[in-house]
Amino acid sequence: MLKIMVFLMLPTLLLISRAEAQDLASSGAPAYVLKGTEVVSTPSLRLGRDYEAIVSLPADYAQSTRRYPVLYVTDADYAFPLIRAIANRVDRHGVGLQDFILIGLSYAKGENGAVSRNRDYTPGGAGVRPSPEQASGEYGQAAAYLQFLREEALPVLERRYRIDPSRRIFVGHSYGALLGLHVLFTQPSLFSHYILGSPSLWFDQHQTFATERRYAAQHKTLAARVRVFIGAEETVKQGRGRDMVGDLARFSAQIRQRNYLGLDWASSVLPGEDHATVFPLLITRGLMWALPETR
Fold first, then answer.
1. Sign of the CA dihedral 40, 46, 47, 49?
2. Is residue 20 part of a domain?
3. DSSP calls for 84-98
4. How far is CA 149 from CA 74, 75, 122, 152, 177, in A?
5. Which pLDDT band holds residue 2 (cuts at 50, 70, 90)?
6. What is the pLDDT of residues 200-233, one digit of tens each?
7. The pTM is what?
8. Of the candidates 189, 172, 176, which has an alpha carbon nearest to the alpha carbon of residue 286?
9. Would you say residue 185 lies in a domain?
């Protein structure tokens, strides 16, 4: 059975104010921690920024010599502890999951998380902006971030841990899922499985549709397994002004028309969920799909 232990400070999960948190710290009360991870520095010399990977190993890792599948997740601040908790609960309650290594990919150290993810998870290059009515900010460096993952971060982690490189699973939500689609259509062999939630296909006037068309013009094969999930409420009625459900339906139809050799693609609309609530359910379904226990 899978038992993932974690050692991670979770200040963002405590429902108290910053002042109250400081009072607790000064009072000598112990901070709440999740036990048992290793935090690995993965700086990028190319980008000139520091990142970290938060790593959780299977309970039997030290006693084993085998290699394990690995799940890499973006937005580690919230996604890493949530996936760890869901995986433990699913495994304990009779469904069963394979043992796996969980790795959370941090935001750049010293940066606000929104700033880091806006820049690193979105494709497009200099000057790109989310939509015509929005100021550009700093976006569009997904290609550079992907190069960092491929050439700097993943090699460090896969030298340090017994990872099976043929079973790398990518998990991302929103901009994280947009990054996953960028990987899929530019470096598809980097990951074997993709669990994607609520991809921001609207970004930069639906640029990802064009990215897929460019890939299809040169390739008939796409060897990857992909599951995409979205909440049924992620439409214009949610007040976002974007029909993300409709976008995903159109994108999935475009994919199906290609008949790519080797591609296992499915998309699901999850009733009653919106952009804020869909992540726990898609992770539950995604883990059961990508890592079913084998007996």
1. positive
2. no
3. HHHHHHHHHTTS-B-
4. 11, 14, 14, 6, 15
5. very low
6. 999 999 999 999 999 999 999 999 999 999 999 9
7. 0.88
8. 172
9. yes
Closest CA to 287 of 195, 187, 206: 195
pLDDT of 127-163, one tens digit each?
898 987 777 789 999 999 999 999 999 999 999 999 9
Q: Determine contact, residues 202/131, Cβ cutoff 8 Å.
A: yes
* Domain range for 122: 39-290
CATH number (domain holding residue 161): 3.40.50.1820
Phi-psi label, residue 103: left if phi above 0, alpha if psi -120 to 50, beta otherwise = beta
Taking each continuous run of H as one helix and of E as one strand, the counts in the chain are 9, 10
Does 91 score more than 80 pLDDT? no
* Share in percent of the chain as helix, strand, coil (round to 5): 40, 25, 35
Q: Count other Cβ atoms within 10 Å, centred on residue 176.
A: 24
Give me 14's structure tokens.
């405590």
CB 73 within 8 A of CB 83: yes
* Interatomic CA distance for residues 251 and 36, integer angstroms: 40
In a domain, 186, yes or no: yes
In 3D space, the residue among 103, 99, 82 whose CA is nearest the CA of residue 1 turns out to be: 99
Query: How far is 25 from 114, CA to CA, in rounded Å?
Result: 26
